[in-house]
Design brief:
Length: 446
């Protein structure tokens, strides 16, 4: 930590230590990579294990269910120790999860893969619970949302790496898996399925190497604590019961949680089924169809930059209301238009996902009294469980309507709620400015 960096009583710093911030931001692509590999696995497992759309979406349920269960324990580790300890625990658990792909690809059961994915998610839950809050704290309070948006901009880089690794290491050339399987005898089919499962291990070998390097860098770098100073004589840190009661009574906090739940669910549902949508509407094979995920993450990345720029000019709530209206219109196009352009619309929606997560996260955390920050941050991360629920619902709807395209209406409804949430936040912000016109110009800009 720089000798000229000073920590304020509320836990924020007077300035951002640059190397520490960059290294912290490097964690964001690491969970992006794991998350986008799930989109590859869903497509591979669907054919190899002959699953319904609903059952294939259970990959996301195992992954995001892990997040949900571990976020509160992770926040307790942060409270008892430090952000750095929680991050190093997360990296270690992530490595263990990747290693479990070795036995999984040999045992070749869907359940064993789900267990390995769940183990990875436990590690990522530690990483996200620590890194999201830490990124917003490691510097001046006024720039908390901007810092988190900058860190989050690294996420699609990781997501892109995951899809590219999956495209070349997991998916093969030639016909789609289902048409190849159709032409084989049962014995050949069995052997082919086993070979396809062996391939799912490949990307994780590379991930393990990267993770070990990052873990070592964290171990040797000094990090500021960024914890609010509590005067022990006057106030003890609030207990879990008191914290949860406080949060349960906080209406804006609860609305933020619902918005985050539906937003993350929708984002993951769209990405989970984009490859399948492309295959259904005429892409040649899985490797070709995975290109549309590459385009999606490029759009997501571009959308973040555009939003970061717009948010320095306009109020974040207004930017996000506009994004939501466009998002609903684009998803309506996916549902209604019966040709391949629907795939391009599904790709374009990713531009509009860019700023949602970080803005909902920082805005919701901002409604909470300082002393409850760690647990509140964990509960916002727990809202990621939306991604365990919404894709499964979308898969279920697809199985029942017999139309992957029409099932995108599930995501459309989620985006409509996100727009409604930001409209409420905008009104709230305007009421606050009316009540307190002395709030600085700086504040209305942020």
């Amino acid at each position: 930590m720089h000798h000229n960096t000073v920590q304020m009583p509320d836990g924020y710093l007077n300035k951002t230590p640059l190397f520490q911030f960059i290294l912290l931001s490097c964690l964001f692509p690491l969970w992006g990579c794991a998350a986008s590999l799930n989109d590859i696995l869903i497509t591979q497992f669907k054919t190899v294990f002959a699953l319904s759309d609903f059952a294939s979406a259970l990959v996301q349920s195992a992954f995001y269910g892990g997040y949900f269960l571990i976020a509160i324990p992770a926040s307790m580790v942060i409270r008892k120790t430090s952000y750095k300890v929680a991050i190093m625990s997360g990296l270690s658990l992530y490595i263990i999860g990747c290693v479990l792909f070795y036995p999984a690809s040999h045992m070749a059961t869907y359940t064993m893969f789900l267990a390995a994915i769940f183990a990875i998610a436990i590690g990522l839950s530690f990483l996200e619970t620590a890194a999201n809050t830490y990124s917003s704290m490691i510097g001046h309070r006024d720039y908390a949302t901007l810092r988190l948006n900058i860190s989050q901009t690294f996420y699609p880089v990781g997501a892109l790496m995951g899809i590219v690794l999956g495209k070349y290491l997991v998916f093969q050339q030639g016909d789609s898996l289902s048409s190849q399987l159709a032409a084989m005898t049962p014995e050949q089919g069995h052997q082919f399925r086993l070979n396809m499962l062996e391939l799912t291990l490949e990307p994780y070998k590379y991930l393990i190497m990267v993770l070990v390097v990052v873990l070592v860098l964290f171990a040797i770098t000094r990090y500021p604590r960024c914890k609010p100073v509590v005067d022990r004589q006057k106030t003890a840190a609030p207990g879990m019961g008191e914290t949860l009661r406080y949060l349960a009574g906080n209406a804006r906090f609860k609305k933020g949680i619902v918005a985050q739940f539906l937003y993350v669910g929708m984002q993951v549902a769209v990405w989970s089924f984009t490859i399948r949508l492309a295959l259904n509407l005429g892409a040649a094979n899985e490797r070709d169809a995975s290109n549309f995920m590459i385009y999606s993450f490029m759009c997501f990345f571009a959308g973040k930059f555009i939003a970061n720029f717009l948010m320095t000019r306009f109020m974040p709530q207004k930017v996000l209301i506009a994004y939501s209206i466009l998002g609903v219109a684009t998803l309506a196009y996916v549902v209604m238009v019966p040709n391949f352009t629907a795939v391009y619309a599904a790709v374009f929606v990713s531009v509009l996902f860019g700023p949602c997560w970080a803005t909902i996260y920082a805005g919701t955390l901002d409604t909470v009294d300082n002393k409850y920050t760690e647990v509140a941050g964990a509960i916002i991360v727990m809202a990621i469980v939306g991604a365990a629920v919404v894709p499964a619902i979308q898969g279920f709807v697809s199985d029942h309507l017999g139309s992957m395209k029409e099932a995108f209406s599930v995501s459309l409804l989620c985006f409509a709620y996100v727009g409604f949430y930001f409209w409420g936040e905008l009104r709230n912000h305007q009421h606050q400015l009316l009540a307190d016109p002395a709030r600085s110009v700086m504040d209305s800009k942020l």
